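User: quick one - fold this with pyridoxal-5'-phosphate bound?
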Amino acid sequence: MPLHIHTPLIESRPLSLSTGRTVWLKLEALQPSGSFKLRGVGHACEVHHARGARHFVSSSGGNAGLAVAYAGRKLGVPVTVVVPETTPERARELLRLEDATVVVQGSSWQEANQHAQTLLGADDAFIHPFDDPLLWTGHASMIDEVAEAGFKPDAVLLSVGGGGLLCGVIEGLQRNGWHDVPVLAVETDGAASLHGAIAAGHTVELSRIATVATSLGAKRVAEQALKYSQSHPVHSHLVSDREALMACERLLRDHRLLVEPACGAALALLEHPEAMAAWNHVLVIVCGGATATLEQIHAWLEQAR
Ligand SMILES: *Cc1c(COP(=O)(O)O)cnc(C)c1O
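Assistant: Sure. Structure tokens for the protein plus pyridoxal-5'-phosphate:
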């Protein structure tokens, strides 16, 4: 039994009617850890566990850390998550609810991550949030489920942080023989690390992250994300924070699901007619995210007006 669940695939009647195309939603927000990350992280943790790992270490205070904490609890493996002081109390609380040990160290993710590396003993496994082939193979299972359901989309919309989801979805498309199905890869303006890499022809490091979609805040994408963008049809698109937030509100209204702005970004592209013009049956990966609160989304929307 894998650690993730088989998620529902539904047609969104409201989004289909308003966009004039068929919009299908893969509801990864319903994974027990709150996001798609459990697919890849769960797979990586199971592999490391089978190889004898006795302790999992993560440096993500977001959905990757939550997925590691969940996987560790289910496998009976202790988990330590090192987070910087900037990590909100809510995120720390969610990690503790999964029985993870939370270590607060440093003022930035870089410092927390460096400290996490020093904690690694011989029987420990470090679980990266996006740059690991084990993760991609795990994420790919979401496309297997879509293929099993007998629905072949003519494009897949997803959001991109470090590019782990992108790599996993393309691995899934290719292993189902869907080499012709393009991926519409969406970032917010303030976290455009894939967009920058495609423009430059090599991965680039953003000098800063400036977005409310914190789960998209990887300064540099995985090399494989760029490689796939050059070998599989990938179209890179940007949306504003405000558009991502409005898409969160809309999903809550239409489908009673609260997701992070990181997920709202992918949904927001549906409102860009020029980007969507060529596609009639689209699949949106509703990647989820456990750290959003309605109060926070409303406060951000006030600021973005
Ligand atoms: C991690 C995450 C992303 C981005 O995934 P990457 O693999 O880093 O590209 C998007 N949305 C949510 C909710 C996430 O947790």
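One thing worth noting: Residues 195 and 236 are 6 Å apart (CA to CA).
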